[in-house]
Sequence to fold (268 residues):
Amino acid sequence: MELLNRHTYLRLICRLVLVCCVALLPLTANSQSLSEAVSKAKAKVNEIPDSLLQKAVNADSTIIDSIVHEVTKNRDVKRQSGFSIAADIFNPIMMFASDYGQIEGALKVGIKDTYYPTLELGLGKCDMTDDNSDIGYKVTAPFIRIGLDYNVLDNKHQRNKLFAGFRYGLSSFEYEYHGPGITDPLYGGNKPYKYTNQKSTCHWLEFIVGIQAQIWHGFHMGWSVRYKTQLSVGKNECGKPYYIPGYGTTTNSSCWGATYNLIWDVKL
Fold:
């Protein structure tokens, strides 16, 4: 408290001396020059002990450092705000290498570099035939996911991120089953096995962990691992769909998935 009083007293003295000098300039114009008035002001300041001046300078430096820190932090927050656009490059490879897969993109909006509301849109496709039964399944349809990611790192404003989140997924589509004709064991004859335009609406949840790392300027790469669980699956006379766009196969009520994204950050 004593040091604070001295600093306050020092600033008041300096300001009063300079103000008085300026105020007295018109009165002293006839008796002394401007340089003489300034010299008197300097002399008053020189009367203050050097130790006290140094303490005042150090105190002011601390205040300035605090201001610079706050400005820099706010600048970093502003630089990190905005949104990002992502494209998955993993699942398209799966679609070409196997009987099913999907293409998808995502839009994320950053809130305080901590929360990221996310919208994911894509197109899923499956065209497969079982080698043993020769029964085939075919579907091509869009899907949507909405959810939220949370940045779990302590330093929220750095360019790399480690996140956890969830998604709600929805797809409404038509699918078909087809296969060899069925022979009637009682009356004979052959009945075609083909069910087309089968409608289904499916809902599911996904729980996600992933990372995102900068590779060059605003471009990042990131991957995520997803645990998916079904909420509801629409069924028809031929049974439930084998593959749900955006979700995967329905062999079990839950499954795992992954994405590997190329991400472009747009800073505002």
In short: DSSP finds four helices and ten strands in the chain. Strands lie at 82-88, 100-109, 115-129, 136-151, 161-183, 190-216, 219-233, 243-244, 248-249, 254-267. The chain has two domains: 2-79, 81-267. Helices lie at 2-28, 34-46, 50-80, 91-97.
